[in-house]
Amino acid sequence: MWRVLSRAQWVSRRWVHSGLGVRLRTFRAVIAGAVVAAVTVVAGCGGVVSTTSPRTRPLQVGLMYDIGGRGDQSYNDAAAVGVDEAKRNLTGLRVREVEAAPGEPAGRKVERVRALAEAGYDPVIAVGYSYAPALARIAPRFPKTRFAIVDEPTVSGPNITNLLFASEEGSFLMGAAAAMKSKTADVGFVGGNRSPLVRKFEIGYVQGVKHVKPRARIRIAYLTAPHDLSGFDRPDKARKAAQRMYRAGADVVYQVAGASGAGVFRAADKAGAWAIGVDYDQAKSADPAVRHVILTSMIKRIDVAVYDYLASVADHTVTSGRVVYDLRRGGVDYSLTGGHITDIQPRLEQLKQEIIHGKVRVSPG
Amino acid sequence: MNGFVDRLLGRVRLGGWLAVAAPVIAVAFAVLITSVVLLIAGSDPVGAFTTLAEYGTQPRSMAMILNTGVMYYISALAVAVGFRMNLFNIGVDGQYRLAAVVAAGLGGAAVVPGVLNIVLVIVVAVVVGALWAAIAGLLRVYRGVSEVISTIMLNAIATGLGSWLVSEHFGVLTGNDLGTRPIPDDAHMPGIPLIAGTPVLVNGFIVVAVLLGIAYWVVLNRTRFGFELRATGKSESAAVASGVSVKKMIVVTMVMSGAVAGLIGMPELLGASYKYSNNFPAGLGFTGIAIALLGRNNPVGMAVGALLWSFLDNSSNQLQLLDISKEIVQIMQGVVVLSVIIAYELVHRYRIVAEQRRVSRELAAPQEAPKAEAAA
Fold first, then answer.
1. Which domains does chain B possess?
2. B128-137, pLDDT tens digit by residue?
3. Which residue of A49, B215, B240, B302 is most buried, as measured by CB atoms within 10 A?
């Protein structure tokens, strides 16, 4: 128990160091801008606006984690980091965190959303797509409560914000980096399961490779079928899949396989080749013995999405519907830890700018 | 002399005030241990139990508790059928999930309309559950494979088979969730407005669960089959001597256990989710094992156990709002099962010792008389 807690704290510290400061500066700029705008509006409209003075009631945030909750060193922790940062920077923010139990029936999630909304929590943030049906049922009954859901585009409503990630854009850069670094013009991709969420990474990656080396060979492996989540927890399978790729001639493998990714790193270590991490800067979080094989990582900033969402609720600029955290918003990015891509960084940076400015188009599939 | 397992599985009955003493001791013990854990975790036990009591007495929570409890109860019945014959069907989990996948796939295809579709879904689930369990029964009879091992392995195979069926045959994608095609509106199990003061309906399967509980009692206690089943469970050699075909009993009992297991997912499938997906409840088979132990395979005892379990599970959301970690619920559940087992064992031992004392007193009494005469 204590160990878990202290690890969580360690993770959060690591995250803070890894660059949230940049986002905070932008946030302060936004706040400043909002204040200026508010002043302008007040000045322009005379006395009429006095009734719409900003609400001073503190925000009561309800945060619903998926299985694992705070301390999972993964998905949920990333959301926790965003909320912790918001607690430090937004005044009067109070957060109630609840989490899902493994294998619970759908009704339990519905009740969780309702319990938070009924108790007056606003906004209510759902971490993970498994909350979609529950949100679809409860959100219409609490029209004044604002809801957000991470990684799920389908559920919609006037009070629902979908926090999405352009993982294909980040993966495009990973593909480009892999192609630039590959001496054999032969690269690989290992996915946890063949779900649409992971497919988006593959699609972006393949486009990135082809953009740099149109004739490169790309080996693709998925560990389990779409329905089977065990592919994210089978490092042994991942290791075998990566081993085959390296033996056949690949020298860079991108893994999007959760905890299975460790197996890919091991295989890379054995083969003396490169691997690419995902979601976090894995050159900082993976087993120290294999960190040296991690070329770079595709970072998905769930913390940024959660933080920005809370900030937008706080300053009344929140919008419903899809908000895509892409390269431009800093929602996806790549890491430089280890200095392995210093030589190609200018080219990657240029590609990034081209994607941001629409000169290079990445199809989401 | 009865063995520990006989006492554990409720094959030995307690009479009189002892039957009341055991559960009372168990509950008191569970409350005590949980309070200590709460204190260690830095939470206020009084606050926690008050919240639990408040939550449990609201109409809407009562409806929710019944709805989850129905699934738990059916699962416990499926496990108990085997337990009564010394068959440990650990595979209830795989049986109900595989049954639910196949039934959901067929139900979603809507080959027949309306009520017929409900019937089809239920029948298919029962048959799939029964067949899947039959594999373990046949392996035990013809190859001597322990059903504990085979059912655990069949669970893993059921997971793989289920995910293959969903992804390759029945799968429809909704957002990120891959599931079977939803069962059409006309084939939904209607809910019952059983509890006043809440719009939440109680799952129609509560009727099925009650009927199953009655059937379980009647079949086991009032039929020849039930007698043979219990006899085989108590002493296989005695059963063989009195002409019971143990092989047949093993297969039939596994099939029955699996058939009941097939129904576990039905309240959720036909009354709540209407499809099988990643969000379908998992692990209900293992919950059933705990509840069968808790209820000591008694149909009423298991109903109480299922409701208690469901109450604790459902209250985890409320406890989390009170800053009490949801793991406390699992601790409570574990402590309740253990204290029930320990309390019953203590009471049983007390009874055995008391009986031995009584017998030795009775035996000693007439011996004293001649001694007294001799002395005189």
1. 1-33+324-376 (no CATH), 44-314 (1.10.3470)
2. 999 999 999 9
3. B302
Q: How far apart are CA B373 and CA A49, in angstroms?
A: 113
Residue bearing tokens 């095609």:
B181
Domain membership of residue A365 (yes or no) is no
Contact residues, chain B, for A107 at CB < 8 Å? 64, 67-68, 272
A112 interfaces chain B, CB cutoff of 8 Å: yes
Whether B167 sits inside 8 A of A102 (CB atoms) is no
Is A51 within the bounds of a domain? no
Number of A/B CB contacts below 8 angstroms equals 102
The answer to whether residues A137 and A245 belong to one domain is no
CA distance B180 to B276: 5
- Choose from A76, A109, A163, A227 for mutation: most chain B CBs within 10 A: A227
User: By residue range, what is the domain housing residue A19?
Assistant: 2-38+56-165+303-325
pLDDT digits (tens, 9 = 90+) for A190-220: 998 888 889 999 999 999 999 999 999 999 9
Interchain proximity B68–A119, CB inside 8 Å: no
Whether chain B has a CB inside 8 Å of the CB on A2: the answer is no
A91 shares a domain with A216? no
Residue ranges of chain A with per-residue pLDDT less than 50: 1-54
Pair A235, A89 in one domain: no
Residues A135 and A149 in one domain: yes
Chain B interface includes A196 (CB < 8 A): yes
My answer on whether A161 and A214 are in the same domain is: no
Is B279 close to A226, i.e. CB distance below 8 A?
no
Is ipTM beyond 0.90? no
